[in-house]
Amino acid sequence: MVNEQNRYVETCPVGCKGSLQPTDIILSEGCLLRCSVCGQLISQCSKSQYQQSMNEFDNPKGTLSDGDAVERHYRRTGKWLFQIASKLDKPSHEIHLLDVGCSSGAFLSVANNFGFQAEGVEPAPQAAQSACSSGLKVHQGFLEDIKFPSNKFDAVTMFEVIEHVRDALSLLSECHRIIKSGGLLMIGTANTDSWTARTMKSHWEYFDISRHGGHISFFNPQSIRVLAQKCGFKVDSIKTHSVLFLEKEDSSAITYRAAKLITELLNMPSRIVGKGHDMLIFLQKP
Ligand SMILES: [Zn+2]
């Protein structure tokens, strides 16, 4: 089922000129489509469905964690910031960093604590307002509309952002313009060339726009490489981790525990062969 009339994403978000082919990943808005050039998977949702699903992001709490998750978030974010500083070979206080789609500033506040000169961009007004009220430097709007000077940042980060945009090529080209020569773009998104996507297909919650607002464009290492090349970035590294074969809600407690044990055993191999479903990407502006 290909619903061409009403589709929000009309062409491959990576900018390929190839055709979009139906896949066997069947969702309520129609099957996902696959770009014949880069393998990108594309949703057939309508513009109104997309806009409605994005509303969930506009709240003051944004992506701030609570409870145990705070410590986990701090540890994970700290590790990423350390990677950025060591790849740039600069002390944190000399690194000017921009977090695109920063929500209420969970990543930015850790970056500030580590001494980075960090600022953010967030389109959702309430989330951006909440970040500003906690003392963070956040610009409300879309990156392309802020018009930062060229070559301003040492590093730009984007976590769980590019799967929400229908023109990833324009977004990454703008990132390329504002990053200094030798600077980094760090991207976190999911990998559809993963054991999880291959096994779970439409049962993978990640593809469900009603549970993950705005998810319309799904990447794999090849589509990232094509995108990077089109925008003038060099691929520094693409790493993946994590496997999932069952969603908790879809199974009994015993089945879920058994499946979880298997996925824990497969976690390390998935990292080694690049078939994990979480993907962390470092691109460099030459
Ligand atoms: Zn493509």
List keywords for this structure.
single chain, 286 residues, alpha/beta, Rossmann fold, 4-stranded antiparallel β-sheet, 9 helices, 11 strands, 35% helix, globular, binds zinc ion
Q: Could you say which overall geometry the principal axes of the C-alpha atoms support?
A: globular
N to C succession of SSEs: EEEHHEHEHEHEHEHEHEHE
Kindly state the percentage of residues in helix: 25-40%
Bound molecules: zinc ion
Mean pLDDT: 92
Describe what you observe in this structure.
The chain has 286 residues and is an alpha/beta fold. It has one domain: Vaccinia Virus protein VP39 (Rossmann fold). Helices cover 35% and strands 23% of the residues. It has 9 helices and 11 strands. The strands form 2 sheets. A 7-stranded mixed sheet has the order 6-5-4-7-8-11-10, with helices on both faces. A 4-stranded antiparallel sheet has the order 1-2-3-9, with no helix packed on it. Helix 2 (68-88) packs across helix 3 (106-113) and helix 6 packs across helix 8. It is globular, with a radius of gyration of 19 Å. The structure holds zinc ion.
Spell out the blueprint of helices and strands.
Layout: E1 20-27, E2 30-35, E3 41-42, H1 47-54, H2 68-88, E4 96-100, H3 106-113, E5 117-122, H4 125-133, E6 138-140, H5 143-146, E7 153-159, H6 168-178, E8 179-190, H7 195-200, E9 217-218, H8 221-231, E10 234-241, H9 253-273, E11 278-284
Parallel strand pairs: 4-5, 4-7, 5-6, 7-8
Antiparallel strand pairs: 1-2, 2-3, 3-9, 8-11, 10-11
